[in-house]
Amino acid sequence: MIGGTATLLTRSVLDSRPEPRGLEPFVAAYTDRYRFYGSGKAALRDGLATIAEPGENVLVPAYLPDAVVEPIRDLELEARFYAVTDRLAPDHTDLDGRIDDDTVAVTSVNYFGFPQPGLDELAAIADDWGCYHVDDNAHAACSVDEGTLLGTRGDLGLTSLHKLFPVPNGALLYLTNPAVEDAFEPSRFTGTNDRIGVDDYRYLLKSVATDVLETHPAVDALVSRGDGEPTSTPDGRYEASKVRMSKLAVQILETVDPAAVRRTRRGQYRAWQRALERRGDVRPLFAELPDGICPQVCPVYADDPRTFLAALERAGVDDAYTWPRLPGDVLEDPAYATARHLSRHVVALPVHRALGRETIEAVTRGR
Ligand SMILES: Cc1ncc(COP(=O)(O)O)c(C=O)c1O
């Protein structure tokens, strides 16, 4: 049985290597213009605060999790959605029609760790209008496309460290444009904590409890109680994410090996690709896995996602999910039908190390 995402204990044992490299040397090989945060949303908030004035608007893809627009609204900016195609590219005609003199920035998203399809045209439109380009690379901190670290295209960008590494929280804000870096002012969410806090202990306890006592409900109830629990509303989740990066995350990130993490995830991704070739009802969203890309998950299009998820569960994969939970405005507007369709049919398959190849093979056969 695959019990959720691999926990700290599992991963630290499985990923341990004699000479761990650490995250910062990896990032520093590509850029020195970055700041630490507790979450991608907090990083986005401070990045936008650097470039935007209340009343302006920020263009974001309609295919986006609901809480990601909260930092935009927090700054009294309008989150204006543009339509996407079924390749996850911006619908450039739709985008061009929504941009106006009050648009301060256009956001692209490197979905699931893959470079944003149709990026050049989006960047050209932003350029024509004199807007900033935000490179949202929340999903995969160590994806590199043709020598460029994803998240460092455009004027500013972000990446979430907690989506890839076994850390309680963590993100980077990239201040790629030197003028944006000059104008940047840190907030109380910028940087890292000096001391191990209650949430760090809770995370450690939960990691140990999940590994050692996975089936013990009393312990699970004990460790999942408390202030750090995410709330279910998008603004509640955003408010809870407005923190600095934890001390425990700092310490763990000093020991991770981004190249090894990328190798593992690419291997698991290829295993899914091979296995799913034999299923006619499921297709990978990205046909290729280019060099340097570190997939966060293996995203697939499922004709019947419910049946597919049930087959995954039966095979022992209980951490696959449809993605994302869309913002309310997107759910109501007919212009965003493709984003809605994708959110129902795209299934994210795990590619972490704890997933056994025999489990992947079992999904090939299961119906
Ligand atoms: C595309 C995208 N951007 C930004 C974020 C926010 O990242 P974080 O969870 O680190 O706040 C997410 C979170 O899922 C996301 O999917």
Could you name the key traits of this structure?
367 residues, alpha/beta, Aspartate Aminotransferase, domain 2, Aspartate Aminotransferase, domain 1, 2 domains, four-stranded antiparallel beta sheet, 13 strands, disordered N terminus, binds pyridoxal-5'-phosphate
Task: Indicate the topology.
Elements: H1 8-14, H2 23-28, E1 34-37, H3 40-51, E2 57-61, H4 70-74, E3 78-82, H5 92-98, E4 103-109, H6 119-128, E5 132-136, E6 144-145, E7 148-149, E8 156-160, E9 171-174, H7 178-183, H8 198-212, H9 217-223, H10 234-240, H11 247-253, H12 258-276, E10 282-284, E11 298-302, H13 305-315, E12 321-322, H14 328-332, H15 337-345, E13 346-349, H16 357-365
Parallel strand pairs: 2-3, 2-4, 4-5, 5-8
Antiparallel strand pairs: 1-9, 6-7, 8-9, 10-11, 11-13, 12-13
Helix pairs in contact: 12-16, 13-16
The structure holds pyridoxal-5'-phosphate.
